[in-house]
C-alpha cells in the first residue's frame, strides 16, 4: 500500500522547532520505512522547501503531518477568523513570575501561525499541489484534503492519529486510508487509554477496512511485535526517532532523552491546552502546581511558546527538555535514524522468526 520495505513510520513530530524535519523523515524513508515531516507550525512556503529538500535526499515515499484543530477551523477552512491570543491576567502573571524566578529575562513574542483557518488551508493546498504521497492529521478531520485529493485524482494516502474508538469511527466516515492508534504511553497529545488497551479496540472497530498503525512508546522490535500481535499492521514511532542525529532538537535535549527515566514524563495540558505527555520540567511542574486552568489551545500554546523560546535561546533544558513518551527510559544513545529503523525491524524479524516463546517452551504443551 505504501511502497515501503518495513511498516515502520517515524511520527510527524512538530513544535516550535519541528523535531521531524526533512533530515529525519528523509533518512527514515531512505532506509526503507516511511518518514513523516512534522509540519504543524511550518508556514506553507517553508514546508514546501522541506518537501523539496526531502525529495533531493530520496525518491522513496514519505509523509507530511499537520494539525487541523476544530477550535481553529470550526469545521470551515474558508472563514478568515484569526483567534485572539491575548492571555487572562492570571496566566500572564504566571509566565511573568516564572520568567523572573528562573532568570529567563524578557519573554520574546509568541510566533505560532496555526490559529488562522486560512493558514491551515494554505498548508493543505500546498500539500495537494506537491502531491505528497502520505498525509497525516495529528489533530482534526482531514475530510477537506481527502475530498480535494480524490477530486484531483491524486493517489495520496491520508491518515489520522486517534486516541479513542469513537475517533476511529469518525475517521472512517471521513474516508481515511489508515489510522494511527496512539495510546497514553506516547509522547505529545495522546489518549486517556494505554497503548496496550487501545490498539486492539481500535483494530476491532476498524475490522480490516483500513490498516491500523500502533503508537505510544514503541521503541524496539519487541514492542513492534507486540503491536502486530494486537492486530496493528505497522507502527508509528516518535520518541525512538527523537534520539537520532537527524532530529531537530538541541544536543542538550538529546542528552536529556538519555538521562530521563521511564517515570520522568508527565501528562499536562499546560503546554498546549490539550493533555499531552512531556518530559517533566520546571515549567510543566509549576503549571500543574499553580492550580491554573489550562486555556483553549490557541492561548495556552501562545503562553508556552513565549517561555520555550526564551528557554531555547538560553539552552535551558530544565525549562524545555522537550516532549517524549514513557519509552524514553529505553533510550541509551543517539544514533543515526536509519540505524534505529533497521534495529527495530531486525529485532522484530528475529522475534517473529523464532516465535514469541523460547524454543524449549514452544515445544511443550504449556
Ligand atoms: C516531540 C514530539 C512532537 C510531536 N508533535 C506531533 C505533531 O505535531 N503532530 C502529531 O500528529 N503528533 C505529534 N506527536 C505525537 C507523535 O505523532 C506520536 O504519536 C508519538 O510520538 C508516539 O509516541 P512515542 O513518542 O512514545 O513513540 C509528537 C510527539 C513528540 C515526541
Descriptive account of the structure:
The protein has 366 residues and is of the alpha/beta class. The protein has a domain of 251 residues: Aldolase class I (TIM Barrel, Alpha-Beta Barrel). Helix content is 42%, strand content 13%. It is built from 15 helices and 11 strands. Strands 1-2-3-4-5-6-8-9 form an 8-stranded parallel β-barrel, surrounded by 7 helices. Strands 7-11-10 form a 3-stranded antiparallel beta sheet, with helices on one face. Helix 2 runs parallel beside helix 5. It is globular and about 55 Å long. The two termini are 38 Å apart. Bound molecules: flavin mononucleotide. Flavin mononucleotide (FMN) binds next to strand 9 and helix 10.
Count of helix runs:
15
Rg over CA atoms, rounded to whole Å, is 20 Å
Query: What is the helical fraction, as a range of percent?
Result: 40-55%
Give the strand order, joined by hyphens, for the main sheet: 1-2-3-4-5-6-8-9
Mean pLDDT, all residues? 94
Q: CATH superfamily of the domain at 8-88 and 113-253 and 330-358, please?
A: Aldolase class I
Order of helices and strands: EHEHEHHHEHEHEEHEHEHHEEHHHH
Strand content: 5-15%
CATH architecture group name of the domain at 8-88 and 113-253 and 330-358:
Alpha-Beta Barrel
Could you please say which CATH topology of the domain at 8-88 and 113-253 and 330-358 applies here? TIM Barrel
- Shape descriptor reads globular
Let me know the largest β-sheet. 8 strands, parallel, barrel
Alpha-beta content class: alpha/beta
Give the C-level CATH assignment of the domain at 8-88 and 113-253 and 330-358. Alpha Beta
What small ligands are held by the chains?
Answer: flavin mononucleotide
Number of strands: 11
Please mark out the parts with pLDDT under 50 across 5 or more consecutive residues, or reply none: none
Distance between the termini: 38 Å
Amino acid at each position: 500500500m505504501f511502497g515501503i520495505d518495513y511498516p515502520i513510520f517515524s511520527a510527524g513530530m512538530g513544535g516550535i522547532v519541528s523535531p521531524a524535519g526533512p533530515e529525519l523523515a528523509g533518512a527514515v524513508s531512505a532506509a526503507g520505512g516511511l518518514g513523516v515531516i512534522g509540519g504543524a507550525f511550518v508556514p506553507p512556503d517553508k514546508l514546501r522547501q522541506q518537501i523539496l529538500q526531502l525529495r533531493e535526499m530520496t525518491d522513496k515515499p514519505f509523509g507530511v503531518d499537520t494539525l487541523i484543530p476544530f477550535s481553529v477551523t470550526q469545521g470551515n477552512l474558508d472563514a478568515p477568523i484569526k483567534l485572539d491570543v491575548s492571555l487572562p491576567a492570571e496566566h500572564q502573571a504566571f509566565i511573568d513570575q516564572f520568567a523572573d524566578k528562573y532568570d529567563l529575562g524578557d519573554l520574546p513574542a509568541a510566533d505560532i501561525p496555526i490559529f488562522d483557518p486560512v493558514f491551515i488551508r494554505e498548508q493543505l493546498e500546498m500539500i495537494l499541489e506537491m502531491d505528497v504521497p502520505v498525509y497525516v492529521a495529528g489533530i482534526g478531520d482531514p475530510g477537506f484534503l481527502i475530498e480535494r485529493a480524490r477530486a484531483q485524482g491524486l493517489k495520496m494516502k491520508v491518515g489520522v492519529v486517534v486516541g479513542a474508538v469513537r475517533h476511529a469511527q469518525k475517521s472512517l466516515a471521513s474516508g481515511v486510508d489508515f489510522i494511527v492508534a496512539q495510546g497514553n504511553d506516547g509522547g505529545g497529545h495522546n489518549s486517556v487509554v494505554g497503548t496496550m488497551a487501545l490498539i486492539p479496540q481500535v483494530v476491532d472497530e476498524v475490522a480490516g477496512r483500513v490498516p491500523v498503525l500502533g503508537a505510544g512508546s514503541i521503541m524496539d522490535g519487541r514492542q513492534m511485535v507486540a503491536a502486530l500481535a494486537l492486530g496493528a499492521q505497522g507502527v508509528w514511532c516518535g520518541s525512538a526517532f527523537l534520539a537520532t542525529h537527524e532530529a531537530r532538537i538541541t544536543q542538550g535535549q538529546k542528552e536529556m532523552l538519555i538521562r530521563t527515566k521511564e517515570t520522568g514524563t508527565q501528562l499536562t495540558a499546560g503546554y498546549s491546552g490539550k493533555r499531552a505527555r512531556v518530559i517533566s520540567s520546571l515549567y510543566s511542574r509549576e503549571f500543574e502546581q499553580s492550580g491554573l486552568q489550562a486555556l483553549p489551545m490557541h492561548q495556552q500554546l501562545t503562553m508556552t511558546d513565549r517561555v520555550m523560546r526564551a528557554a531555547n535561546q538560553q539552552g535551558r533544558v530544565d525549562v524545555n527538555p522537550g516532549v517524549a513518551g514513557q519509552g524514553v527510559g529505553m533510550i541509551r544513545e543517539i544514533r543515526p535514524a536509519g540505524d534505529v529503523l533497521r534495529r527495530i525491524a531486525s529485532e522484530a524479524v528475529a522475534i517473529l522468526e523464532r516465535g514469541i516463546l523460547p524454543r524449549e517452551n514452544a515445544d511443550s504443551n504449556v
